[in-house]
């Protein structure tokens, strides 16, 4: 069974025991998280498409850790002016492990 969830303005296709990095969520490692914006559920019995979400469906997950992405550099150079500027940014993210998918009623 798989599901498509929406979190942090992005959509992810998940299945049980998947580990994925998503936008930062509040919580510590080991705490449970529930995603209630389930857009689609699929499996052997068929596919259920939400309009816009599947009623009563939830995806349970456990927070594995809080990390940061690799650094993204913003480089600006003005030619022949001996001028340049480098700025870096690392986005915070949460690593979660999907523990279960509930189709609801």
From TrEMBL:
GO terms for cellular component: cytoplasm; ribonucleoprotein complex; ribosome. InterPro entries: bL21-like, bL21-like_sf, Ribosomal_bL21. Keywords: Ribonucleoprotein, Ribosomal protein, RNA-binding, rRNA-binding. The keyword Zinc does not apply. GO terms for molecular function: rRNA binding; structural constituent of ribosome. It comes from the Bacteria. GO terms for biological process: translation. The keyword Transmembrane helix does not apply. This protein binds to 23S rRNA in the presence of protein L20. Part of the 50S ribosomal subunit. Contacts protein L20. Belongs to the bacterial ribosomal protein bL21 family. This is Large ribosomal subunit protein bL21. The gene is rplU.
């Amino acid at each position: 069974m798989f599901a498509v969830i929406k979190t942090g303005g992005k959509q992810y296709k998940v299945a049980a025991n998947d580990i994925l990095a998503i936008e930062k969520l509040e919580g510590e490692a080991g705490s449970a998280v529930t995603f209630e914006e389930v857009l689609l559920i699929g499996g052997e019995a068929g596919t259920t498409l939400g309009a816009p979400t599947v009623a009563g469906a939830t995806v349970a997950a456990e927070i594995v850790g809080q990390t940061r992405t690799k650094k993204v550099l913003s480089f600006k150079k003005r030619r022949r002016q001996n001028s340049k500027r480098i700025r870096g940014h690392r986005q915070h993210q949460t690593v979660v492990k999907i523990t279960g998918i509930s189709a609801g009623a």
